[in-house]
Design a protein that fits this description.
Elements lengths: L1 H20 L5 H16 L7 H4 L21 H16 L15 E4 L4 E4 L18
Antiparallel strand pairs: 1-2
Length: about 140
């Protein structure tokens, strides 16, 4: 059951990545959407499961959305990678290859890039300071 649950979460996250950033070619930027979802799961301000975070009004999602983006990136594989890193972190590892620090739970895009923030409005966006595990 655990594997099926994790796979279902990866598929949900892949469809959210497609809906939120299908035209982005950077795995790093795409993975940041997954980290935003996981940061929300960990935040007391949001539901505590991936399925409940990925809901209309929070994260763009369509159950019929593709799982490969416009650049041919396998979004399920990318989501599985992020989830593996997340669970390593949950089990005490410290340098798992996060692409977005904890606390970044909001983002907005301009059609080319997404900008990640800790607050809903204002205070700038994340400066991409963490190492890129996908380059």
């Amino acid at each position: 059951l655990a594997f099926q649950e994790h796979y279902a979460d990866a598929v949900r996250m892949s469809k959210a990545m497609y809906c939120e950033a299908r035209g982005i070619s950077s795995k790093r930027e795409l993975s940041m959407i997954c980290w935003t979802i996981l940061n929300r799961v960990d935040s007391p301000l949001f539901p505590n499961t991936i399925a409940r975070v990925i809901t209309p009004g929070q994260i763009a999602y369509r159950s019929g959305a593709p799982t490969v983006n416009d650049h041919g990136i396998d979004l399920v594989a990318l989501a599985q990678d992020v989830l593996a890193r997340y669970w390593k972190e949950k089990h005490g590892e410290t340098d798992v290859g996060r692409t977005l620090p904890p606390g970044y739970v909001y983002y907005a895009g301009d059609g080319y890039h997404n900008y990640f923030r800790q607050e809903y409005r204002g205070r700038g966006s994340y400066n991409f300071g963490l190492r890129d595990p996908y380059s």
